[in-house]
Structure formats: C-alpha cells, structure tokens
Amino acid sequence: MAPVEFTVTGGEGSPLDFAAAFVPGKSLVVLTDPGGWALVSKGLVPGHAASTTVATRVRALKFAVLDLRHFSSASQLPPITDVPGDVVALHDTRAWDTTSLVQALRGLGRPVLLFTAVHTWVSGVDSASVLMGWSAPHVVLAVPAGSGEGRVEDVVWQFRELERRRLVRYTALPEPVVVEDRAVTVVVALPGATEGIAGTLRPGAEYEVWVHVGAHAAALPGDLELRAVLGMSGREVQAESFVLPAEGSSPWVSFPVTTPYASVPWAGELVIYRGAVPVHVQHVVLPVGAGESQSRLRFRLSRTFADLAPLSSRVASVLVLGERALVATGGVPSWISLDGAGALPPVSGLDPWYGKDFPSYCADLAAAAVRGAALHGMLFPDGAVVRRGGVITVVGQTKVSWAGVYDLPFADGPYRVCASMARFGPFGAGGPVPSRCPDPDHSGNVLCPFGFWGLSSVLEHPPGPLAWRVAPGARPVEVALSVDPALDRTLTQRHVAELMSFLPPESISSAYVSPSGLARALEDERADVVHLVYDEGVLEAVDIDAWPHRPLVVTTSPSADLVDAFVNQAGAAGVICPEVPVDQGMAGWVSGMLLARLAEGMPAGEALRRARWEMLGRGNVLGLAYTLHAGADLRLR
Ligand SMILES: [Zn+2]
After folding, report:
1. Which CATH architecture best describes the domain 460-629?
2. Is CB count within 10 Å lower at the N or C end of the chain?
C-alpha cells in the first residue's frame, strides 16, 4: 500500500471529543492518545472484551473494548461482535498484523477506534477514516485524500509545518445536542370515545383519563416496562402497566374516573414508575364545572427515559408531596400522611473523637429507633417490611430523616440490645459488616442497627435527572475545598486535618472564600468534588451556569435548600450533606471517609452506608442524619 495524502486541521478539545463528533460518519478513527485509552480501558480485564461508556463534550460514547496486545494472534481473540457498544475501541499490537481484523469490524457496521503508537504505519485508511494526534494545545485531525496507509507521526509533522507557515485551519466541535424532554401527555375523554375532549367537565360524571409517554429521538436500549399511576383527590390510586417501546411512543393508558359532585378544579398526581421508582411526576388539574385543565411537571429522574433500565434494582420508594407521600414497593402505590414525621432526635455530648461510650450510644440509637419505628408504622400501616440490602429511593422535598426508619417493632421503654449493637458499636469487635444481622433473635423490644434503613439498605434522594458519573478527567480525583474565613480557625484546621488524613494531599486544593464570593469562585472550578466548609444558613443558592463537568458537592452543614440550585441549575451530579448541624471536626472526618471510598470507585450510596457503620463503630449515630441528594449509583470514576 502506498502512503496517502491528508487534509490536516487542528481542533480544541480531546481526541475522544472529536472521535464522538466523527463517528458514525467516519468508520475508522486512528489515534495516538494514551490518556483516552486509559479512560476507555479502565477496568478492562486482560484477555477479555468489555463494554464501557465515556462522557465526552459532544455526547456519551459507548464502547466495546479489546486490547489486542493481550493476544498473540487474531485466532485467539474472544468474540467482540456481541459486546454492546456504538463503537469498537481496539488497542493495536505490534505482534501481528491487525489490518484485516479492523476491516472486518468496519464491514460489520460498527465504527472502529484504533489506538496505536505515533510511528506505527496503519494500512487500509481511506476517506471514511480520520487520523488523530496531539500537538499541544491542539488535537491534530487528518482526513486521507484516498486509500492507502498512514501514520500519526506524519500528520502531526504536517500540522506543525502548517503552523510554522501560519496556514493552519481549525475544525470546531459541534455544539452538544440539546436534549429535548420526552413528553408525558394527559387527555380526558368520554367513556368509549376515540378522541379526547377539551373544555370543562360535568360534575359527578364519568370520564376516562388517558395517559401517554411520547416519542423521543433517543432510542431506548430496549423495551421498557413502566407503570402509570393516577391519584386524583378523593379517589383510590389507580395503576396500569404498559411498555414503552425502544423506539416511538407508548400506547395510551386509560383510567376510568368519576368527577366530584362539586364544581371545583379537581387536582391529582400522575406518576410514571419504573419498578418501584417514580421517574416522572406531573400535577394534574381537571376543570370540573369551570376553569381550564392544567398539567405541571413536578419532578423527573430522566429527560429521555433512555437511562432508566438500571432502576429496576430499587426495592421501594417514598414520593413526598407536601404533607403526604406515595409509598411504593413495586405494586400499586399507596398514600400515607407524614403528619408528625420528623428529623432524627438531637444528639449532643460527643467526645473529642466524635464518639460516645456504649450506654450513651445505645440511648442515642434507642431514641432514633422510637421515632424510626413510628415512621415505619406510618409508611406501612399493614406491617409490610421492605427487603433489606436493596436501594430505597426518596423523592421530593422533605425534612424527615429516612435513614432513621426502623423496620422492627420498637417502643419507648425497657429494651434488649441485639448482639450486633456491641459487635459493631464502640470498642466492639467490628469487622466487615454482613448484609444481614448475624444474631438470629430479634424478639421483643429489641434494638438492632440492622433495623435502620440507612444501615441495612442504600438510600438515595435524587433531586432531578440522574447523573451516573462525575465526568472523568484522565487524572486522579481532585477535591476543591472552599472554607468560610469567618469560621473559627481552630475548627477549620481540625476539619482540614481530618480530611487530609484520608486523601493524598496533592489531590486537595483549598481556599478561603467568603460566602458572597463563592458563586464567582465556583464558576471556574473544575475539580471532581466541591467541598464547602460553611456554617448553616450562611450560604445562599449559588447562581452558576451549567458546570460542564458535573462535580459532586459535599457540604458540612445542612444544605437541603441549596440542592435544587446546585443540581438542577449549576449541573452538579449531586450533593451530600448533613440534615442537622454537626461539629466541623466531625464533618471533616465524615467527608474524608466518604471521599476516600468514592475515590476508590465505590458508588455514592454504598459509600455513605459504609460511613454510617464506621461512625457507629465510635458510638456516633449521626451517620443516619446524612443524605445523598443523588442517585445511589453515582461514581466519581
Ligand atoms: Zn440484630
């Protein structure tokens, strides 16, 4: 094969950003990009193919990944055709000629990203290919003029030559596609009709409420089983299952209703569930006698419904709507009243290690259990118990401490302690926490840490569309600490010292920022974790325009009122914060435990559950007063 000529341009972004822009228009991307390969091949087991998704500035790219260096010939390769991915990412090898493999994969209709060394000659490049290299600070992009062979080294050399002669042209990344939201439509019809009606409804008359999930440009990974739930004021909750096909809209789901006898705006909630999880909540007002029909989106977990399949692992949900909540465990959800439900009882008198002795720890946990058992009784008046060890989703604004829900009967008065209280409590034997309590006897008024939702299950409290990962950079996790200069310096130093004991010092940057200057300082912040050390009530909702990298925000004081601005406006992936004011030193200890686990790759929900157990090991029950305002599966890396 003869060397080909190229049209060479430069670009601003990463090679993977441009790869996302070029495929599927180009069926072969040859690139020298060790950082990009590190992202794509993270977690790849030698000798196996894998599937992975990488976020880019253009869109998320799903890869089927194979490192050809693990194999001594093409005949030893595992099958790659059935590994999911929009694109096949291969790392080239010098041990054998990979040309025919690449051509075969291109022929099957999936574009190939071939990661190779800068000096390697690659055969079989053509006008449907692009070669990419790097000449700081630009990505070098080269499109062959014909068919033949080429190498990245030559296109980088050509680029530098053009640069020297000031003849470089640049290729811009396309703007990220604006995701249009998938619409959920509500229509009222007369019974048996084939078309909906407009205008007011007659009091005390029979109608049908039709519900429909619209089509969307983003195809689903497969058909999605969903459930429409209609809860109109003064009526039983109705539920109907349906399937949203991979492409197109759902069929209409119909609910028979009888309007109230009074001429009033008739309000209710329409909720779409995926398994036990409410993924779309719409407030509906039907005009009975007078007025206009209204429909207002209250909450959604997804804008496209394309990322909902993993939620099938959730075992229960609580959808809080003011003083009421809709509780679901997979069947027809039911309304409960939250009147009288509240936060964790106050905890004071922690020792300098943020702990307590055994009797005081038992007393704290017993006080929490009294409240938690009452709350459990409100959630499940029929005595049902959610399977422990799963993920429980809470949606909506709430002051209730859900981690403190206690699923064993427990009343104020004399109680017995389960053996796990001592084993996992202060100065206990400790050890890995099993998925269920090792002590078989839970009869009577018994106090057991496994009775609490926050210790036996993973809790998530997502405030909006789910983020699955903080957008990765090709570097270790970075934490940016902002500290209020008005805080007591001794406490601040204690906080920082605790945090530093868990994380490599080079991963942390810190600055004193007054509350009024915080929004400005955070605007340009690109660390993975934004850690805010401020007292309760000091911060106002930050006004930040869409962070491009979706960081995780961790605060050291109650910040539930800031979550919406951080996640739904600034674009944070989530917020972790205490529900009650806590000691600054303790806050540093808790953040350190959480971030160390997140940096190891643990999902946020499990990291918080483990931190609660670790706190219990010092006799500290305040882990139950920490909330993850994000999806439980959120990862830093
Ligand atoms: Zn137990």
Report:
1. 3-Layer(aba) Sandwich (3.40)
2. N
